[in-house]
Amino acid sequence: MSVDDQQRTGASLKREFTRIGWWGVVGLAGGSILLGLSWRWQGALQWLAMAGLIWAFICYQTKRRLPLNRPNPEAPLYRELGWANRLTLLRAWLIAAVAGFLFQPWPEGPALAWMPGMLYFFAAMLDRVDGYVARRAGQSSLLGNELDTVSDALGLAVASLLAFGYGQVHWSYLLLGIAYYLFHAGILWRNLRGLLVYPLPPALHRRAWAGFQMGFLVVALWPLFYPPVTTLAGFAFMLPAVLGFFIDWLIVSGRINRQADAVNQRFQRLTDFSQTVLQPALRFVVVVTLTVSLLQSGLPPLRGHNPAWMSNVMIGGFILGALMIMLGVAGRCFSLILIGLLAWYYLSNPLLPVDYVLFCSVIWLLLLGTGRFSLWQEDDHWLNRYDGA
Fold first, then answer.
1. If residue 320 lies in a helix (H) or strand (E), which one and from where to where?
2. Per-residue pLDDT reduced to its tens digit, 289-304
3. I need a surface site. Which of 187, 249, 255, 326 has the fewest CB within 10 A?
C-alpha cells in the first residue's frame, strides 16, 4: 500500500470513528431524556454528565489507537473498523451508560431498578461475541485486542464501584476494580525509571476469571440478592483474582523469574498440588459443609409462604449438585447451579459460620475446576478452548 493509500485509509477510519463517537453522544442524550421522563430530571442530568465523561474517555483511548487497526505491525491498515470493533465500541458505550448511575442512589421502580444491571449484562454478553465475530470475519486486529482489554478493565472498575455504591460489596472488592490500572501504572513507573519490565507468560485462567467477575457483578447489580450474600460472594470471587494480579506483578517486575527452569518447576508443582489435592479437597468440603448447613438450619429449606414443591426442588438440586461435584461431572456447571440455589436458600435462612466456608468453597470450585479424579470435565475443556482461542 502506497503512502497516499495509507493516508486515505487513515482518514476514512477517522471519519468512521467520528460518526460512531457522535452517534454515541446522541444515544446518551436520548437516554437522559427517557430517564428524566421516567425517573427524575436531576438524576438524568447527572447520569448524562457521568456517562458523557466516560464515553469521552473511551473515544480518546480509541482514537489514539486507530493506527493499530491492522493484523500485525507490518500489515497495512484495514479500510474499515469492522463489525468486531464496532461491537466492542457498543460494549464500551454500554459501560459508559452504566457509569452514568455512579454516585447516585439505586433507581427505584420495577424496571428502573434493573437498568444498571441489565446494561452491564448486555455489555458482558457482547464481550463473548466481538472476538468470535473478528475471527469469523477474518479481521482480527491489534486495535481490537487493545480495545477489548481497555473495555474489560473499565467495565470491571465501573461495575465494582457501582456495586460498592449500592452497598452490595465490601470496599475491598474495589481492589479488583482498580487492579488493572495499578498494574499498568506500576509498569509505567518502571519504564520511567529505566527499570526492566519482564514479559508475562500467557495463562488461560485470566480471561475466564474476568468473565466470572463480570457474571458476579451483573447479578450484584440486579435487585435479586443483597448482603450478606453478595458481600461474601464478592470476597470469594475477588480473592483469587487479586492474588493473581499480585503474582503477575512479581513476574513483570523480575521478582519471580519465569524464564528460570527451577521457577517453572515450582509453578508446575503448585499446579499439580492444586489439581491433585486442593480442588478435590474443595469438592469434599462442599459436600460436608452443605450437609452440616442443612442439618443445622433444619428442613424444609424454604420457610414462610413458599409452597412445599419449591422446597423439594431445592433439596433435589442440592443433592444432585453435591453428587455431581463430588464425582467431578461437569463440576463448574453444577458449582454455578449450586451457587444460585444457595443464594436462594439464604433468602430464607441466616448465614451460619459453616455457610461462609460452603459458599466460598463452591465459588472457588467454579473458578478453579474440580481437578483430578473427576469423571467428566468437558465444561473445563470448553472454557479453556473458548477463552484461550
1. helix 308-327
2. 999 999 998 888 887 7
3. 255
